[in-house]
Amino acid sequence: TINYTVTPGTSATLELRADAVDADGTDDMSSGDTVTGNLVTGSSNANGTKSLALINVPSSAKAGNQLTIATGSLSLAKTGTYGNQSTVLPQNAYKLGSFTLTGNSTEDVNLSSIGVSFTASGTFANSNLTDVYLMYGSTKEAVKTTIGTGTSTWSVSKTLAKNAGVAIDVYANISSTPTSTNAITPNMQVYGTTASSNASVETSLTTGQTITAAAGSMTTTLDGSSAASQLVVGNSTVDTAVFRFAAANDSYTITEVVATTSDNTTILSASLKDGSTVVGTGAISGTTITFSGLTV
In the chain, N or C terminus with fewer CB closer than 10 Å? Predict the structure, then answer.
């Protein structure tokens, strides 16, 4: 029953609201269903305040906007900006995998746990990992000193807002046991409950990046800027050669460089530069020039 007066020249908005529950236990309303509220044709249910004339409101049936029932969800993917890695061993607090967890546009999700398992090859095994932990955004979760062969679970209490996303990274210490070319790959699954519909949700089991044990190496090449030949005058300083050093799978500090020359009779002194910075002066002995005590 409504007792409301609409003033001439104005309009009124009527909203139809209801609780949507599974009251009879049949679960007849589920995600993807649609609901439309309708106003049926009135029957002499309004009268003029001056004329007292009865009218029908509404004069014909009116359908409201259609609503679609939806339940929140979670999706997980490996982070595209962090690719497969090759690394020398051992390593401390090494990033084994990076994932992106994304919510939905319907409701928040209360996260309860994150499960991580590993797929290993050859001499790589879960036993080679210690102090394993997760980074949820900028928050460090509990450290597991060791992990078993199955799924390791971290209990969490986080709320992922609708339309939000967060990075979840896996870190661990890696022992020196795995040999070159053997690898390990993390797999992750996230569990939670939707905040409004109270439905249990989980992501699919998602495979992360492959971490491969590799030997470190360094290569030396003649740089393209090095002159093939040049004419020089006496008592002058010239750039005789430019070399490029490239490291793979590890970082190196160059402590000594040895160069040779076919004729040392015209060389008074030699220096080694990193760009425009002199990093060493060479000791000339016969046709050999040694630059030692370097920290490049």
Answer: N
% helix, strand, coil for the chain, step of 5: 0, 45, 55
- Cα–Cα distance for residue pair 79/181, rounded to 1 Å: 23
Q: Which of 16-20, 104-108, 242-246 has the lowest mean pLDDT?
A: 16-20
127, 132, 145, 202 from 152: Cα distances, Å: 13, 10, 12, 16
Structure tokens at 214: 């590799």
Alpha carbon of 263 to those of 109, 205, 233, 290: distances in Å?
75, 66, 16, 15
What is the reported pTM?
0.74
Say whether the peptide bond before residue 8 is cis (omega within 30 degrees of 0): no
Q: What is the pLDDT of residues 192-249, one digit of tens each?
A: 999 988 999 999 999 999 999 999 999 999 999 988 888 888 778 888 899 999 999 8
